[in-house]
From TrEMBL:
Protein family according to the UniProt entry: Belongs to the SusD family.
Occurrences of domain SusD-like N-terminal (ranges): 74-228
Alphabetized PROSITE patterns for the sequence: PROKAR_LIPOPROTEIN
Composition skew (Polar residues), residue ranges: 296-315
Annotated spans, Disordered: 296-319
Name of the protein described by the UniProt record: RagB/SusD family nutrient uptake outer membrane protein
Keywords recorded for this protein, A-Z: Cell outer membrane, Membrane, Signal
């Protein structure tokens, strides 16, 4: 993929007038000459690029110090290793979710907010820049301040709102630095206001789209506001189902959908190709750009490719996000109905037959065709023979029996030339918000206010793109005349499939307070595809690639399923208090005005207010 221009510009080498020390190495961007930061649009853009680079989420939605967002925290892909997973096992302590930040550090959340606030303050105080250019710069900074606070609020509830650069800690100005927590509702109101300010001044489309690929647009700001208010209306933040919160979410998400649609946003026709179009990608709303550079100062490679391929097909990493049997079973059949409810017969042995087309484009399984490393007809074989996996000679094989192949540059999908040696240089971009999410956010909030026809429309359109059969009723497998509760469940199920391995499932279960009921008590089902001991041709290993897969399974394989046999550790025990994590004790020790969340040691702060 081509290089991106706005996110990782080599600031020091490009402009001698701005030293590294004056722009990047200081926590306070305002320490640079205001005339340079605010009066010179070139340097102001460079400073803004630094804010982009600090705040854009990584692949899979990683944005926080704790790394929360990984699919390994749900039934998508059980973390079956031997090390403890505190989030799943009910062992989180007050100091384990450290995203709040306590040190004077430009890379923690409040350090990043300080940089943004300094940038905003300098621009506002300097009259030299053209007003239109200034407002566009400010709008992008407001977006990222909203993004940072949203990420904090979804972890902890209300946090201290710092909207101007604060003085350093000192005896004379302690009151200016030690701030109490704002209520959650105050934080949501401020985040909404920042996003409104961003949307007011951002363009619907940037001039020179290729050169500005990845810059925030008006639709991007509106979509994030829709996501924010959907969270605020969900049971995590709205356990009493207050209708006004659903109405606010509906208004914001419909507005985002309408604005994006008017500007040409739509679903890409092929689900498998969502990730392989850059400028002109009609589904991309909020994007982090990567490139294929090997060693220069603009290097920003994506780790997704090397992380998710089989270990033997990459020089680094491999074998991450291994799909679980639970995830395999979650996909509907190709008529959109669940196994056992469909006109298509389902069996565990032929689990791959007649499934939702997104299954084949997301999950790699034993015997599937998976064109990678320039082998166009490559087939993955990961069954067991005589008690040993045949994959890669019995070493570095998938413990679940499956791989995630979403967004991997295979030759049939992307025309890729990636082979084993250069997977670490992948430039595939991450789409934190894509138009399918805007549609499903709109559907969910419409259900919240009882507009079920609108919810049906959005849900059907997502399923239509997926390739699910329309059926005689044109409902694409959906139940007719669903209740509000049934529609909520249908949308959550759709999100699980549509956004599989995109870092959304954990947060969806958390905002719906479904983590305990969905996950607790499970250790994951172990799946083992075994080659029969009799009746197998002697040349099977050399002739299997030419056989029809259904015949191979029926004639030569058996499947063994062991409930609760995947993880070697204790069963999942997600605790109710985790719906709002603890403020780290170290932060409270540093700022006595902070109160701990209810449910934690000495907790007196109600995150629902």
């Amino acid at each position: 993929m081509k290089k991106k221009y706005i996110l990782w510009t080599a600031l020091c080498s490009m402009f001698a007038l701005a030293s590294c020390e004056s722009v990047l190495d200081k926590t306070d961007l305002g320490a640079a000459d205001p005339d340079l930061v605010s009066g010179d649009s070139v340097l102001a853009n460079l400073s803004l690029n630094y804010i982009y680079n600090q705040n854009l989420p990584d692949w899979g939605g990683y944005t926080a110090v704790s790394g929360l967002g990984s699919s390994t925290y749900t039934e998508e892909s059980y973390n079956q290793g031997s090390s403890q997973n505190k989030y799943l096992e009910g062992a989180i302590a007050e100091n384990d979710v450290t995203d709040f930040g306590t040190a004077l550090n430009a890379t923690n959340n409040y350090g990043k907010i300080r940089t943004i606030n300094s940038f905003i303050s300098d621009l506002q105080q300097n009259p030299k820049m053209d007003a239109g250019a200034k407002n566009r710069l400010l709008a992008q900074a407001y977006f990222f301040r909203a993004w940072r606070y949203f990420e904090l609020v979804k972890l902890y509830g209300g946090v201290p709102l710092v909207l101007t650069p604060q003085n350093a800690v000192g005896i004379e100005n302690r009151e200016a630095t030690f701030l109490p927590r704002n209520t959650t509702s105050q934080c949501i109101k401020q985040i909404s206001a920042d996003l409104d300010s961003a949307a007011k001044y951002l363009p619907a489309t940037w001039a020179s789209p290729a050169a500005n690929w990845g810059r925030i647009t008006k639709g991007g700001a509106m979509a994030l506001k829709g996501r924010l208010l959907l969270y605020a209306a969900s049971p995590q933040f709205n356990p009493t189902d207050v209708n006004t919160k659903w109405q606010a979410a509906y208004d914001a998400n419909k507005a985002a959908y309408d604005a994006l649609t008017a500007n040409g946003s739509k679903l890409i026709a092929d689900y498998a190709k969502i990730w392989f179009t850059e400028s002109g990608n009609t589904e991309a709303v909020f994007v982090t750009g990567y490139n294929t550079s090997v060693g220069d100062q603009q290097k920003r490679n994506s780790g997704w490719e090397s992380s998710n391929r089989p270990k033997y097909s990459t020089v680094s990493g491999g074998g991450s996000n291994l799909p679980s049997w639970d995830m395999v079973k979650a996909y509907p059949m190709k008529d959109g109905k669940k196994p056992g409810e469909s006109k298509y017969t389902y069996s565990d042995l032929l689990f791959f037959k007649d499934r939702d087309p997104r299954f084949e484009k997301t999950i790699a399984y034993n015997g599937c065709t998976w064109p990678m490393s320039n082998v166009p007809n490559n087939r993955l074989w990961t069954y067991y023979a005589a008690g040993k996996s045949v994959e890669n000679g019995g070493v570095n094989f998938s413990f679940t029996g499956f791989y995630c192949k979403k967004a991997l540059q295979t030759s049939d999908v992307a025309g890729s030339t990636l082979d084993q040696s250069n997977t670490i240089y992948s430039g595939t971009d991450w789409q934190e918000i894509r138009f399918a999410e805007v549609m499903l956010n709109y559907a969910e909030s419409a259900a919240g206010v009882g507009k079920l026809d609108e919810a049906y429309t959005q849900l059907i359109n997502v399923r239509k793109r997926a390739g699910i059969e329309a059926g005689s009723d044109n409902l694409y497998g959906l139940k007719a005349n669903m209740s509000r509760a049934e529609m909520f469940k249908a949308i959550l199920d759709e999100r699980q499939i549509e956004f599989a391995f995109e870092g959304k499932r954990f947060w969806d279960l958390r905002r719906w307070r479904l983590l305990e009921s969905t996950l607790n008590g499970s250790k994951g089902t172990k799946v083992q595809i075994n080659l029969k001991t009799t009746g197998v041709p002697a040349d099977f290993a050399t002739t299997r690639d030419g056989m029809k897969l259904e015949d191979v399974y029926t004639n030569y394989f058996t499947i063994a399923l062991t409930p609760n046999g995947l993880m070697s550790r204790t069963a999942i025990n997600y605790l109710p208090k985790y719906y709002f994590f603890a403020i780290p004790t170290s932060a409270i020790d540093n700022n006595p005005l902070l109160k701990q969340n209810d449910g934690w040691t000495n907790g007196a702060f109600n995150p629902l207010e």
